[in-house]
Fold:
Amino acid sequence: MTVFIMANMDEAPSPSVPKRDRRRDNFVRAMSRLMKRSNKVSQLHGADMYVLVRWKNRHWVYCSTEDQEFPPSPKAFDRIYPPVVIHRPADFADTR
Structure:
């Protein structure tokens, strides 16, 4: 028995399988790059760095030093001179 199936070329293609949600994969990859870059900056410039990231109630921390007093508490920022420079998302707004 031979069966021929002819496709109607005027029909819209059937719905494709939805793409897998890759947000977590992309985030983990970005975090890995951020931590490696933070380590590189710390080593090249002798800077003490502390990076804290919270995403979906999970925390990632990079600390370049074993010093227990680093980073200072937010209350201690008031006593630090010169004043602490704090960046917010608006500081990085695209200016193009």
Summary: The mean pLDDT is 86. The first strand starts at residue 50 and ends at 55. The two ends are 67 Å apart (CA to CA). Residues 23-92 form a domain with the SRF-like fold (CATH 3.40.1810.10).
